[in-house]
Amino acid sequence: IHFYKRLAFSHLFTMSWQDYVNTQLVGKNLKEAAIAGHDGNLWAKSANFNVTSGEIQTILQNYDTQHNLASTGFNLGGTKYFYLSGDEEVMRGKQGKGGVHLVKTNQALLVGVYEAPMEPSAAATVTEKLGDYLKGVGY
User: Fold this and answer.
1) How many other β-carbons are positioned within 10 Å of the β-carbon of residue 25?
2) How many angstroms from the chain centroid is the CA of residue 44?
3) How many other C-beta atoms are found inside a 10 Å radius of the C-beta of residue 64?
4) What is the overall mean pLDDT for the chain?
5) Strand ranges (DSSP E) for 29-106?
6) Beta bridge partners of residue 94, listed in sequence order
7) CA 95 from centre of chain
8) In Å, how far are 43, 55, 69, 84, 126 from 52, measured between CA atoms?
9) Choosing a second label site near 89 at 20 to 30 A (CA), which of 15, 37, 111, 125?
10) pLDDT tens digits for 29-64?
11) Is the pLDDT of residue 89 over 60?
């Protein structure tokens, strides 16, 4: 097969980071979503989510010492979230009638923002399902 045809053909079976945000996070009823590397660089985000690399870096720097966030909370997209709970892989935050669920994989941080009527458990399922898949394929 000609090189360009192989390239186009192989693209049909791989998803871009933006595709994951659009179909596996926002497409599953999250209000906003993002995927970033452990260095804080954004790989993809939903169109109206104004999350910054600095906000992601602050969260990642506190992932192993999440208790520090209990008194200060954290910001994403300019919105302040109250820290609820977390562990070495997951972090949860609350804001009004919604919140955020974060999942840290081997190489990425997934951010899923939800609002009522979506329940926190549904947001957790959506975000963690993609996180488990990415961990399984080395990300």
Assistant:
1) 27
2) 9
3) 9
4) 90
5) 32-37, 42-45, 74-76, 79-86, 90-95, 98-104
6) 82, 99
7) 16
8) 11, 5, 18, 21, 22
9) 15
10) 999 999 999 999 999 999 999 999 999 999 999 999
11) yes
